[in-house]
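Run log, item B.
One chain of 279 residues. Sequence copied directly from the ordering sheet:
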Amino acid sequence: MIRAAAGDSDLDLCVRVLAAVEGVQLSIDQLRPVQERLLVHETDHGYAFVNDSSVAGSAYAMVRVLPSERGQGIGSELATAARDAARALGKESAWGVVGADDQASLRFAESRGFLEVGRDVKLTRRLSPGEGRTGVAIVQLEEEHRAGAYAVAVAAIPDMVTAGQAEARPYEDWVEQELDDAAVAFVALEDGRVTGYATLQSLGDDRARLEHGFTGVLPECRRRGIATALGGAQIAWAAARGYEELFTTTGVTNTGLRRQKAKLGYVEEAGPILVRGPV
């Protein structure tokens, strides 16, 4: 039996399963805002997360089961519940990610109609205190920059390499999901106009690492070094505050971002596999 997450005990279950499966340590408070999107299995050995996504007509779905408890039908029941939840959101499909070396999970997804639609690479940058550079046109994002940064998102998100055609969320949702939870956000300014922005996201209670959120530049302003300048500002900010590592993932076909990160000293390795299927 699958139930909607209710109360701290269910949120604690999700925290424990996520830590065991992915090594990510979140807190109950960090999951509380998405509690209504969490589904837990009666065995307390797994959960599913289903939410809106930037991919048109598609929900983001994640099914996680404790490694020691797999093969008992828990994942299948959660996957069925996740499909129902995606349909309840008015979606025609769902997408998610599978670890690059997790062939068992890939077979699980494929057996339920999910097909591989892309592969990512992981880009990691080790930090040293005092390093990094901040371009003179790069400043931290303030309230006055939000409308301009959202215009960048609207223009840049459709170019993302993802599980399907992507589009920007409505403005209020974008602020809540992109900015409110960001560790820091920067914008690039040209004659007072926002031409690009980039965010860094916290990883729960991890004080050593940050994950890159969205980095976008207006199409007409690309190939001017703006994304590289934003990346330099992020490195400088994180290094000055004692962080040890920055990382992100992107599609293998996103050669522009991969080249830009290589200029900034990022090391590349195989990342997750994107899968998508009907609901």
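Observations after the first pass:
- The longest helix spans residues 8-22.
- The chain has eight helices and twelve strands.
Flagged for discussion on Thursday.
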